[in-house]
Structures are given as structure tokens and as C-alpha cells.
Amino acid sequence: MISDITAARDSALAEIAGATTPEEVAAMTTRFAGKKGELAGLKKQLGSLESVDEKKAAGAAINEAIGAVDSALDERRANVAMAAMAAQVESERLDLTEFVGKPTRGHAHLVTQAWERLEDVFVGMGFRVAEGPEVETDWHNFEALNMGEGHPARGEFDTLFVDHVGPDGSSGSTVLRTHTSPVQIRTMLTQEPPIYIVAPGRVFRRDTPDATHMPVFHQIEGLVVDRNISMADLAGTIDAFTKAFFGQNWNSRLRPSYFPFTEPSAEFDIQRPDGSWIELGGCGMVHPNVLKAGGVDPEEWSGFAFGFGIDRMAIMRHGVADIREMFADDLRFTEQFS
Ligand code: DAH
Predict the structure, then answer these.
(1) Averaged pLDDT, 108-125
(2) Ligand 1 center to residue 281 CA distance, Å?
(3) For strand 174-176 and strand 195-204, is the pairing parallel, antiparallel, or unpaired?
(4) Which residue minimizes the CA distance to atom 3 of ligand 1?
(5) Whole-structure pTM over 0.85, yes or no?
(6) Which pLDDT does position 102 carry in this prediction?
(7) Sequence ranges of the domains in the chain
(8) What is the CA radius of gyration of the chain?
(9) Ligand 1 pocket check: which of 157, 261, 265, 267 to mutate, most ligand atoms within 8 Å of Cβ?
């Protein structure tokens, strides 16, 4: 009996030493150390032994063998797990040296570059940068900007509505902001005049992408509220911006237009050194109703506002033919603008 036990233990230990995968160790654990394992089988045979001394000796030998097999299994399990981990790390290793000699440093997106340059120029002119949320209330996006319910100008915005039911059970009153103009309202409601801010940001419209439109695009808004602000201040600011951003040999002009939130309203154009004109954005004197919605007394304060697209500036600057190129994330395109 003792020699059977010793033989069973030794062959188990030899097999365990040869295990190389966690699966093999698991199978051996069942085979050698399980309740139906070989050593457990021998244990059951103890009852058939005649003498007490023989039983004792065989019992002790079995316990010793079980202990040896258990600790051999534990040790093997740990070693195999470590080896498996090392193999995985090795197989997932990235050879970063393959990029040596090929500069792959990234750079800001074209729109971000234009956005940051615009901020720089306006900050240089004394403006501060303001922000507002991209998900906006109908009130901030339209109502407070003098576009009450049913105002025809709302139709021009191709609004994306957010499926949201307000705490009062109302729905249809939350939108993805269609322009950066609601930041005018938020700024006036949280800041006393004088106000000199620009608000760059992402805006959304239900548009099918084509060469000149994206459903998600970027605008920069400007708002000035102070005493005795006039149309001349607006024209002077636009011209100073044009020269600072594009160059001293560029000019600007205002053309009469209509926006619900300004009165009078204008489009502003810029003139290239070659004499050709480009339409850039909208502007005007802030409508008294808009000042009132912002909690500003129109008898005491007046202001001007402007807004234009950032993406168009980026395209113009780099001569990109199709606005969609900027958002396709094709390295062959983006790498040209580092
Ligand atoms: N919010 C207008 C738009 O998205 C642009 C605009 C026009 C902004 C005139 C202004 C403004 O602040 O005065 O079409």
C-alpha cells in the first residue's frame, strides 16, 4: 500500500512539473487532488487494511502525498499564470521604434486653429470670451432674441429639437442651439454692463451635408453693451477686426439687412487686397427687446452684436474646396495643415 501511495505521488508530481498551461494545471487538479482523484481513491482503500499500525502508516503517507501534490499544484499554477501573462504582454507589445525618423506629432484641427486665432484677435481688442450650453432652451435660442412663437425667422434655422419633457410636463421647448446668439442673453443675465464679449462655439441645424454646409458647425458671436454705443462703433470694430485678422490691406463694409435681434441690421463683407468682396456675417444694433430680455435697460444702455461662421474662415484661409473634407478625419488631408 505504501509503495502504491509513493508511486501515485511521484507520478503526479512528475506530471505536474511538466504542465505548461493554466488549462493543464486545472485538469491535473481534478485528476490528482479532486474528491474523485487518484489519492482520494487510495484513501478509500485504507478501510480494507488489517492492522491499526498499517492503517496509521498508510494514512500518514496519503496525507503527506496529498500535501505534496497540493503545494506542487499551487506552485505550478502560479508559474504558469505568470508565464501566460508574460506571453500576452509580449504578443501585445508595440514596436514604437518603427516610427523613428517619421515625425507624427499631431496638431490642432483647422477649425480649432481658426477658433483660437479669432479669440486671440478679439482678446487683443479688449473682448472677453464667454460660453453657453449647446443644448438650449427655446426661450434663450429664439424667444429672448425677439423671435416669439410663430416668428417667420424661426423657419430659417432648421432647428433640431431635443426629445425632452420639462419638469412642468412641457415638451418641444429644448433645442440644439441653432446659433451662438443665445450666449448674448446668458451673458447679459449674469453680467452687468459694460459688456465686451465674444462667444465661439458649436451650433446645429437640420441640414444635409454638402460642399458648403454641415449639420454641426461653428460660429463666433460678439456682443458689446455700454453707454452711447452707436453703429459707428460697430463699423469701426468690424474694420479693426478685419485688418487684425486678415491683414492691413483688407477692408470691410456693412450692407443693410434684417435680423430679428438687431435694429438696424447689416451684413458685413470683407474685401481682399485684389478688390473682391466676401460675405462674412451678420451684425447690428441690439434690439431693445433683446436688451430687456437680458435684464438691461435700453434707455440707459445700447449695444451692437455680430455673428459669423468659423468653419468658413478656415476653408477660406486654406483654400479648401469642400467643407466636408475638414471633418472626414483623413490623415492625407489633415497632415497638410500642421
Ligand atoms: N445668429 C445669426 C445666424 O446664425 C448671425 C447673427 C446675425 C448674429 C446678426 C448676430 C447678429 O449677433 O447681430 O444667422
Answers:
(1) 96
(2) 7
(3) unpaired
(4) 179
(5) no
(6) 67
(7) 2-91, 110-337
(8) 38
(9) 261
Q: Residue 97 above 80 pLDDT?
A: no
- Ligand 1, pocket-test mutation among 187, 198, 259, most atoms within 8 A of CB: 259
The class of domain 110-337 in CATH terms is alpha beta
Over residues 195-248, the pLDDT tens digits come to 999 999 999 999 999 999 999 999 999 999 999 999 999 999 999 999 999 999
Tens digit of pLDDT for each residue in 36-48? 888 888 888 888 8
Q: Which three cell numbers stand for residue 73?
A: 499544484
Reading the block at residue 280, the C-alpha cell is: 462674412
- pLDDT band for 164, please (50, 70, 90 cuts): confident
Largest CA distance in the chain: 119
**Cα separations (Å) of 135 from 32, 122, 132, 182?**
65, 25, 9, 11
